[in-house]
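Handout, section 3.2

Students often ask what a structure token actually looks like in practice. Rather than define it abstractly, here is a full record for Transmembrane protein 180. The first block is the sequence as you would receive it.
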Amino acid sequence: MTVEDNLVSGALPGRMNLMRFLIYFGINPAALAYVMTTLGSSMINNIFSFYYVNLFLNKYKISEGAFHQSQVVYMVWNAVNDPLFGYLQDNSRVPCCSQRRLSILYGAPLYSLAFLIAWFPWRSYTPGDWLSGLHLMVALCAFDGMLTFVLLAQCALFAEISSHHHNRIRLIKYSQVASLIGSSSVLFCGMLSRNMEDFSAFQAFTVLIAVLSCCCMLYTGIHSESRFDNKVSESDALGSVDQTSQSTFSFSTLRTLMWQILTYRDFQLFVLMNFFQVFLLAFFNNFTMIFTERLIPPDTLNSLAKSIMYGAGFICPQLLVLSCQSLLHGLGYYRMILFSFYVEAGMAAIMLVLGAQHYYFLAFFLTISMIIIQASFSLFGLPLADIIDADLQKYKRSSPLSAMVFGTNALFTKPAQSLAPMMVLNILNQFGYEKMKDEGRNSDPSTLESLHSVMFYLVCLVPMIIAAVQVLAWRPFSIRNSHTVDSKYIDG
């Protein structure tokens, strides 16, 4: 039975009509429902990750100490909430947690509201104001908490909508189209607010995006389905026997399940590789605007050109993945991810040899790096889905630990989102960035030259070294040919 048949046969009459309408126009209803959360989340996630560091450093004038404190709290919260929410969503008997679509349905409005916290100052901040540090802490933790709750449910849907490789590739394809549309929010935000110079326009745009994002994710919450939803309903109908087994879940059970996941070698290799990918993503998302403004003169790239450059860094990854669909089917994700590491390291080495004075090459390198890193990261759901399938078969589970696998992965990789800005900002401040960010190009020329030199070496050496480490971590990964094993993918 196909995914479409599964969905239509179990749907309510009104939803059946909608699904038939979509199928008539060649749109897969399961994929569309899934990617509406991708569309909504990409609208707000990209704006948040791209602008929040620059906003708090250069507009709210947060001190380095408060910035680091906020990032440490964020890092701890990041490490705790993913496995906690993953365990809750896989084992809870409360429908809003146990059913993926309901987690998205109820979490979406709070997710969009949490996105808005950062963009509205709680008062007129003075440089080093303690309240700006508290503001950043609350904004990061609230946004990440709701992001985790909603996107863990969506990640679990990726593995549970279908186990067929072809259907998962289709979800990737639809997701890239949705991300392509959603990522344009950075481009339009930059153009309408002149890269945040018109802050009122920036705030108005974020409110609009929050509303649109919420509506998109609500569509997933209403229309999406998991293959295991019926099994959850059946287990509820069994009564006291299942209630007894469910009541045995405890911290010891959580520890056992996590140990089973953590001792799987392919999972360990993936997490190590993914940690550095998340670090690189945070590095480029948080500092590309700062590096560009400092290293490329205004008469070389004007504000509009920079807005297009920033937008391309978020839009083109989806175009790249969409153009490589045949390669995904033919070569598989393993080889494509490995190849991206070689390309990233090679480009960084070439840029280092060329030098910082080649401004157009530097702009090209920053943009292409953002594209390649984000494009390869977009494929990471495929190896995680295969790891979930392997865990399901190895331990003969009645339903997969989808949210727990994704949550445990995030436990070790998400701290990189905090480590990247903390480490980079610390290095920059050692060379006078905090003192000079208000003085601009009127600072002492020798000190400014030293700072720019450090920025350039960071731009080149960080991706080059990290890509080399990722190659070493990824090469031993054993699930390399799942795209060729058709017998494994039989939907029940």
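Discussion prompt for tutorial groups: The CA atoms of residues 281 and 373 lie 7 Å apart. How would you have guessed this from the sequence alone?
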